[in-house]
Here is the input.
Amino acid sequence: MHRKGIVHLDLRNMGNILCGADGKPYFIDFQSTISFARFPRWLQRFMRGSDMSGVYKAWNKLAEHPMPQAKQDYLEHFNHVRKRWIFKGYPIQRTYAWGAALVTQFLDFELVRSITDRL
Here is the structure.
């Protein structure tokens, strides 16, 4: 996937990883994938690291054999960096939810005002 120039960015959610009958992982929910070529190299590394940390998280939790120490160290380091990442969750989704709540409040205010005007 990374060799093709895309990142998934939601592999930490193990519901997005599906294993086939052959035991190999297949990815679903590709609507969150993006091409990373247009981003600065430091951000490309972080995005690929986010994907890899999701893979290592699943490996650590589900695999029969323990993860090599180098990969365990990588996961711990990335989780430490991730805690300080400024963009928590999905910023666009949060903005949409905020806007929808604002519109709902406005509509409710107008509804209440129209009812009170009639009294």
